[in-house]
Amino acid sequence: MPRSADDSWDIATSVGATAVMVALARAAETASAEPLIRDQFAEPLVSTPELAGVREQVTAWWAGDPDEDSDDAPDPKHMINYQAVRTHFFDAFFAAAADSGVRQVVILAAGLDSRAYRLDWPAGTAVYEIDLPKVLEYKSETLAAHGATPTADRRPVPVDLRHDWPKALRDAGFDTGQPTAWLAEGLLPFLPAAAQEALFSSIDALSGPGSRVAVENFGVDAEKRREAEERWQVRRAKREARGQDTSFNPFDLWFSDEGRPECAGWFAAHGWTTDTVTALDEGQRLGRAPHPDQAPFTNSFVTATKP
C-alpha cells in the first residue's frame, strides 16, 4: 500500500517486506559457489512460516515473463550482486571504524541486518539497532530460536525514525561523548524529505569527535523513477491478466517528495570530511560489474568523519 505520514508495519508488510527481499539476496549470495559476503543468519531469518507469503511475492516480483523486455524486467541475479557489493562495502566500513577505536555503533532501520551477530566486534562494542518494535522482536526471537548470540553488546531501540529516536537511543544507554559509527543502509527513500533532514541533523548533534557515518545514497532521479514505475504498471497489468501475484510493489513504499539534502554535501557543510564511492565502481572493483545504467548500481556510498 502507498505510504502515509505515520504508517507502521511488521516484517511481513510494507517496508518490512523490503528487508525480507534484501535478506533473501544475502542468503542467495552466501549459498553461492564463491560468495563475496557471508551472512549465515540471512537464510534462517527469511525461512520462517510467517514469511512464506512475502517470499512468494518477492519471487513473483523478480520473475520474468516471455513477453517482457529482458532489459526491463527485474533480475534476481542483478539484485543479489548489488546486495553483495553493498554489504561488503559497509562491513568494511565497520571494520575500519573498529580498528580506529570506535566502540559505539548505531544501525538505523536495522531490519534483518545481522551484523551484531556475524561481525567480529572488539570487546566492549555496543551495537544499537533502531527499528520498529515488531521488526526487532521478530529478528531477536528468530535468531534466539536458532541458538544465535550477538558478538557485541546488542541493544535494540524500538522506535520509529520519524519520531523522537534520539531520546530513545539515549535511554538505551547511548553515550554522546563517545565516537560512533553510524549506518543508514537502504533507508533514505523510505523517509519523507523532512525526516531525512532531521535524521542528518540528529546524527551530527549526537556524534562525538571522531565519529563516522556511512549512507547509501539512492541515485534514481525523479524522472527515471517515474519511467520505471510506468514500465512496472504495464508489466503489472499483464501479470494481473494472467492471474499472477502483483501485491509486492516497492514503488509504493518510497516517498517522492522533493527537497532532500544531498548526503555528501550536507555533511561537508557541517564540518565532516566526506568521501563518495559509486556502487558501479565498487561493483567493478569487486568483480561484480553490472550494466552501468541498471539500478541499483546507480546508487553511491557516502562516508564521512567528524573531526
TrEMBL record:
Keywords in alphabetical order: Methyltransferase, S-adenosyl-L-methionine, Transferase
UniProt enzyme class: transferase
Composition-biased stretches (Polar residues): 296-307
UniProt-listed Enzyme Commission number(s): 2.1.1.-
Residue ranges, annotated region (Disordered): 288-307
Function: Exhibits S-adenosyl-L-methionine-dependent methyltransferase activity.
Record protein name field: S-adenosyl-L-methionine-dependent methyltransferase
Native organism: Mycobacterium rhizamassiliense
Lineage, top ranks: Bacteria, Bacillati, Actinomycetota, Actinomycetes, Mycobacteriales
